[in-house]
Amino acid sequence: MAANPRIAGNMEDEMTPRFDIQKAAPGAYKAMLGLETYVRGCGLETSLVELVKMRASQINGCAYCLDMHSKDARRLGETEQRLYVLSGWHDSPAFTPRERAALAWTEALTLVAQTHAPDDVYEELCRHFSEEEVMNLSVLIVTINGWNRLSIGARNVHPVDRPAAAA
After folding, report:
1. How far apart are CA 3 and CA 8, in angstroms?
2. At the fourth CATH level, which superfamily is domain 44-154?
3. DSSP state string for 25-91
4. CB 55 within 8 A of CB 88
5. Which residues, including other chains, have CB under 8 Å from residue 147's CB and lie 6 or more apart?
6. Partner of 81 at 20 to 30 A CA spacing, among 25, 54, 103, 135?
């Protein structure tokens, strides 16, 4: 296995895109967009969708998706405080019981090889979501994990916002 460029100190190679996910396989990209379209119209609250996308992207370390979804969340009215404390949601009163159940399920499915989607997390989820919503939430989690893996694999680079000039 190749050396990790973060450890080796070669960040320039890490910032160079590998391939364009839209152009490399247009049919695959179109299929992913189909999932994204479904998720956007499935009836889950937009704010919840963005929190789930953010949390999965945090776990996966996808800077491209974190940049995109933090901006989307803010544009849709999400508070900076909730975005700042999202990775510590377990210890924050800023999230509703429904959001907490969704975030726990997000972590369980994103880390499924470790968690095996435990019954207690699923049972808490079912207290706040219908069976259809559980399926829709699960498809959302599958979709953002897919985007994360494609973005990380392709080394998609997010735009850098430059700070405003000091007055």
Report:
1. 7
2. AhpD-like (1.20.1290.10)
3. -HHHHHHHHHHHHHHHHSS--HHHHHHHHHHHHHHHT-HHHHHHHHHHHHHTT--HHHHHHGGGGGG
4. no
5. 32, 36, 62, 65
6. 135
Q: Which amino acid is at 154?
A: A
Gap between the Cα atoms of 146 and 17, Å rounded: 17
- pLDDT, one tens digit per residue, over 7-20 is 555 555 667 999 98
What is the Cα–Cα distance from 127 to 124, expressed in whole angstroms?
5
| Residue 150 neighbours by CB under 8 Å, 6+ apart | 21, 32, 156
The residue extents of the domains of the chain are: 44-154
pLDDT score, position 29: 96
Question: Percent of the chain having pLDDT more than 70?
Answer: 89
C-alpha span between 85 and 64 (Å, rounded): 19
44-48 contacts, C-beta under 8 A, 24 or more apart: 44/133, 44/136, 44/137, 44/140, 46/76, 47/73, 47/76, 47/77, 47/78, 48/98, 48/99, 48/102
Give CA–CA dist 76/84, Å, rounded: 16
> Of the candidates 78, 68, 54, 50, which has an alpha carbon nearest to the alpha carbon of residue 161?
68
Q: Residues 156, 23: contact at Cβ < 8 Å? A: no
Nearest 10 degrees: Cα torsion 50, 11, 113, 121: -30
